[in-house]
Amino acid sequence: MDLSILTPNKAVSKNTVRTLITFQVIVFLVIWAFSPFALLPKPGEVWDSFNELWSQGLAGELMTSFTLNIQAIFWATIFSLLLAYSTVLPFFRPIVQFFSKLRFLSLVGLTFFFTLAATSGHELKLSLLIFSVSVFFVTSMADVLDSIPKEDFDLARTLRMGEWRVVWEVVVLGQADKAFDVIRQNAAIGWMMLTMVESTVKSEGGIGSMLMDQNHHFHLSAVFAIQVTILVLGLFQDYAIGFIKNICCPYAKLTLEHR
Predict the structure, then answer these.
(1) Number of structural domains, the chain?
(2) CA–CA separation, 23 vs 28, rounded Å?
(3) 229, 62 Cβ separation under 8 angstroms
């Protein structure tokens, strides 16, 4: 056994990481399978429930929710980046700071106002998800922009760039890789809020609505099957965003490797 995995701040090879992950997954499955908790469904029961749910239309519900979440992430990203980038103008800074503070609010009660503004059930769900993601996205992205070293701006100005060119080169292009990281961090919020949103508006169905129905009837194995499905899809989404980041910002990976 490679004892370097127990050494603080020790770099290990990719093969070691893969072996470690495989070992930990196997241990987790064994503990799960032989868990003494009677109410905790076993892996076989979860798999049987997954097959049953699949035959009942899980794939279609999953596609409905996935499409909704992708739309929410897309619009939340555009809206949040525009707000965050607007902080280069002093006029917009208080507005952005106020909007970021809205992350402490619960959607209970606010749903009424979103309902009045929406023209359809889909638009209501989409607006709720966009709001839920944006308030956290703006906060994270504003912190990224605040952490830009002053030297980066000074360097751009010594190259005789105008202030708007400085914004484009230093703030937008210079922080593009970090913007992708913020997208990855906050995209998961959409999946967390999906159950609440789709249980509020059930006209289009969705995996969140199915999850609430199974939980209401206390079908724990089905609940676990849906949760695991959401987790797998979320991991795929996270990987896809990281893959796009590596294509659009290859320099970020090179910088990380040379640290």
Answers:
(1) 2
(2) 9
(3) yes
